[in-house]
Amino acid sequence: MSIFPSKTSNSISVLVGGVLIALTLAVAQAQTVILRGEQPEAVHADRPSGVSIEYVLPTNPELQELYNRLKNRRALEKIQEILSPFRFSEQ
Fold first, then answer.
1. Is 57 inside any structural domain?
2. How far is the C-alpha of 59 from the C-alpha of 37, rounded, in Å?
3. Backbone φ, ψ for residue 88 (5° rounding)
């Protein structure tokens, strides 16, 4: 038996899964940009952590609700804050 009702548990799982997917895609994009030697378009000089974020609309309409939830809850900004103590080398 779960502490959370099934619907809440499923929502949490979807949200966490979406955040993990977004983080994975951000890392993959950063690696691609580094390998190409380019600067990403969303780079901001005032970003303290060196981690830039960008919300991109999903092409799959089924992911629109998840996208809206992540954006409204500022999920990528929270991940950026979590990563702020780390310094990544610029190549």
1. yes
2. 27
3. -100, 140
Q: Which domain holds residue 63?
A: 6-83
Q: Is residue 88 part of a domain?
A: no
**Span 24-33, pLDDT tens digits:** 777 666 666 5
- Strand extents, DSSP E, 26-68: none
> pTM for the full model?
0.45
CA–CA separation, 54 vs 71, rounded Å?
Answer: 10
Q: Does 90 fall in a domain? A: no
Total tally of structural domains belonging to the chain: 1
Distance, in Å, from the CA atom of 81 to the CA atom of 78, rounded to the nearest integer, reads 5
Stretch (H or E) spanning 35 = helix 6-36
Contacts of 80 (CB under 8 A, 6+ apart): 47, 49, 51, 53
CA-to-CA distance for 49 and 22, rounded, in angstroms?
Answer: 17
Task: State residue 50's pLDDT score.
Answer: 73
